[in-house]
Structure formats: C-alpha cells, structure tokens
Amino acid sequence: MHWINAVVMLVMITSGWGIYDDDVIIRGFYFSSFWRLGDWAAWSLNWHFAGMWFLVINGLAYLTYGFVTGRFREKLLPIRPAEVVQTVIDTLHFKFAHEDITVYNAVQKLLYIIVILAGISQVVTGLAIWKPVQFSGLVSLLGGFQTVRVLHFAGMAVIVGFLIVHVALALLVPKTLWAMVAGGPRVTPNNQAQAHHSQKGHTA
Amino acid sequence: MRSPFSPDVVPDTAILDDHQPLIRSLERRGLIRGSLSLGALALLTGCDVKRPESVESALLAISRLNDDVQALLFNPNKLAPTYPASMILRPPKFNAYYDVMDVKPVNGTTWRLEVSGRVADKRHWKLQDLRALPQTSMVIQHICVEGWSYIGGWSGPTLRIFLEHIGADLRAKYVAFKTADDYPSSIDMATALHPQTLLAIQYGGQTLADPFGFPVRLRTATKLGYKNPKWLTSIEVTNTYTGGYWEAKGFPWFAGI
C-alpha cells in the first residue's frame, strides 16, 4: 500500500502542478514543464482524474486497515509534547534515536498524523473543486470555490514538505529502506536467539 | 487492541549497530551533501515524460469512464448556487481559443439558427423568435477548467423550452452545437433539460455583446466554461457522439461541475 501510495502521490502532485500552471494562485509562480506530468493542461488533468481513483481506493484500504487492526492507535498514539520537543532537539544535534524501527518517535507520529489528515483533506477539497455545483454545500462550508483551490494547493504544499523530510530521513537511516521494500521488520526464532546472544555479548 | 500484524518480539536493537558509527558521524555538511544528491536523483526521475500512445489511450479510457461516473453524479434537480445581481462582473471575462481582437461579430439581422436531427420542426430561428419565448434569468458562477471563475448574469429561454418547442426527442442522448467561430460542442440530454441551461441572449440585463457570443450562446450552470459555445449557428438533437473542440484535444467531454 505504501508504494502504490508513493507512486500515486507523485502522479497527483506533478499532474496537479500542470493544472495549476494554467491559472496560478501565486502570481508569477509557475512549475517548469520539467516537473509537470502531462505535456499540457488537458493531459495533466487526465492524469489527475485517473490517479484520483487509485489514491482514494488505496487510501481507503490503508485507513480501514489502520483503524480495524488498531495499528494507528498502537503506532501513532499517544503523542506527548515533551517528547516531540526532545526529539526535535536530538535531531538537530544529529542524534537519530532510531534503534528500534518498529517504534515511531514522537515527531514521526506527529508527522504521520499530519500527512494522513492532509491526504484526507486533499480528497475532500479535490471533490469540492471537481463538483462545486453537485457539492455546493461543501464548497460554501469551505469558503467558496477560489478558497477551496487555495486549500487544495496548501494541502499539496504540506504533503510535499512531508515528503522531503520523510525521504531525506529514510535515506539517512538506510536500514528502514529495506524494511519498507521488504514489508516490515521480521523476527524469527533464530533471530531472537542471536539477539539474546549478542545482548549477552554486550554486557560481558 | 494490539495489531495482529505486529510482531510479538521486536527486533534486537543490536542489528542497527552497523549504522551507529555512521549515524554518529553525520554532520551538517553531510546532510547538505545528501540533500543535493537527493535533488539530483529527483532530477533524474523527473516527470518530463512524453505521451506514448498506450498511456494516452489508457488515460482516455479512464476519462470516458469518468464521463459515465460524472453523469451518475449529476443530479438533474440540483440547482447551482445563485448570487445577487450586484455581484455580476461587467463586462464578463472573455475566453476563447483565440484573442479577443480576433472576434468576428455576427450580423444579428441576417443571422439564423439551424435546427436538425431528431426534431419535429426544422424551421430556422431568428433572434426575435428566441426573444418571443418565455425568458429566464440567472446569476451564476462561471468556472473555467483552468481554475478562474467569475459571477455572471444571463437571460434567455431555457434550452428545455426551446427543445420542447421544436418537438425534439427528449430521450435522445446528445444536443450538439455548431458556432460561427468553428467551435463545435455537445452536451448530454440531462444537462440540456436542466432548468439552469439557457440559450442566453442577454448579459446583465442587456443584449449580449459581440465578444461574448451575440446573438445567442449556450450558458449552463452545471458545466465548466468550455461547454458553453458562443455565436451559435446550429443545434442538433442526436444519438451520435460528436465531441467538441477541446474534447478533440484531450479534455473530458462531460465536464460537469
């Protein structure tokens, strides 16, 4: 699910940039053709409207899995503000306390929650932009069509910001990459025995 | 509840030992170097993909599927929000596939509207014939596929009244339009019969000006701007898909909002 999401997110972001360029929100701020998916707006739009199905279906599967199995509660909660501050300080001092990759630190928890909420928000604002008449109630709730466009753009910025930090840190702690590719850390009895052994070794 | 997918025993921390010296040795310069190579990597995988035929046909297939989904989402009784007349933008925003300087005005006295296809009465229409039909006014938001929008006030007979008047087959699939500026367009019958789909002959209470489609244009509140052809010359009721100007270049056909 993570890798489907990774591909679809890139499709949605880069095709979104192609659509954005047709009528920019920030005056003078364009994405160069290099970063846009689709050689002009029509195809960026087609990519965006194709990608949305994969994003929504994969996202729903991910959310269902996260809630039903209790993974979200277990991995992402609780978040203690003091821990967040401490982790930020540690990270700025280049102390990456990531000994156990099955446990997220407080900043990770916070960032994952933010990006999940941003993803949900993108689907809601996206729906409002796609069908502003059929979902006119939603549009007026969100402050009008042009405001929703800005919200949709801001949601993209949050996700891109997350991606930069996420990818940079994953590359800095390379062991996590294998876990992501292979589908999570594995623990076999054999492994355990070795672990005990090496622990003894340390204490000796 | 504990996730059934999480392991009973967590991996030993010692397996990270290999990385500890690396992690400890990381410096700010290292991080900067890292981000630079990350940027380079992103450049290599950049999205400057040309459009291969297989990708194009896959995207078009999904776009057609989306047209069906959009038709399902379209509620014929749902009205677009309307606004007070004080919010009408004067003059409206000009938009076409060419510059406003290249608009070729249509002569209203010699102009005729052709009617064809699945209709009982195929006589041509003059502007005064359209004025004689019951008139409807609406102040609605125009939303362009590019993202911009403005509020405009439009008046004229509803397309439904016009279609009923010419004895059109209201179970036909499409209503297709031709224009003086060679901008063919077509819409689904459900949208054609929507109460906020007009043959607009006035803007803001005054005769439509030349750049905005004089003598008559389509104005539908439930579709994107490019589904509103101006300077109409012909209306056809048909079961044959005829597409449209931007649709032929790849834009979605239904374009409902």
Explain how this protein is built.
The complex is a heterodimer of chains A (204) and B (257). With 204 residues, chain A is mostly helical. Helices cover 72% and strands 0% of the residues of chain A. Chain A has one domain (2-203): Transmembrane di-heme cytochromes, Chain C (Fumarate Reductase Cytochrome B subunit, Up-down Bundle), CATH 1.20.950.20. Chain A is built from nine helices and no strands. By secondary structure, chain B is of the alpha+beta class. In chain B, strands 1-10-4-5 form a four-stranded mixed β-sheet. A four-stranded antiparallel β-sheet of chain B has the order 2-3-7-8, with no helix packed on it. The longest helix of chain B has 21 residues, at 53-73. The mean pLDDT of chain B is 88. The chains are: A mainly alpha (204), B alpha+beta (257). Chains A and B meet through α1, α2, α3, α7 and α9 of A and α2 and α3 of B.
**Total of domains of chain B:** 2
Tell me what portion of residues of chain A adopts beta-strand conformation: under 5%
CATH class descriptor name of chain A: Mainly Alpha
The termini of chain A sit apart by 43 Å
Indicate the low-confidence ranges of chain A by residue numbers.
191-204
- Helix and strand element order of chain B: HHHEHEEHEEHEEEEE
Name given to the CATH architecture of chain A: Up-down Bundle
The greatest interface between two protein chains, and residues involved on each side, is: A-B, 63 and 62 residues
CATH level-four homologous superfamily name of chain A: Transmembrane di-heme cytochromes, Chain C
In DSSP terms, counting alpha (H) and pi (I) runs of 4 or more, how many helices of chain A?
Answer: 9
Mean pLDDT of chain A: 85
Structural class of chain A: mainly alpha
Q: How confident overall, as mean pLDDT of chain B? A: 88
Q: How many beta strands in the DSSP annotation of chain A?
A: 0
Helix content of chain B: 10-25%
How many helices of chain B in DSSP terms?
Answer: 6
Percent helix of chain A? over 70%
Number of strands of chain B: 10
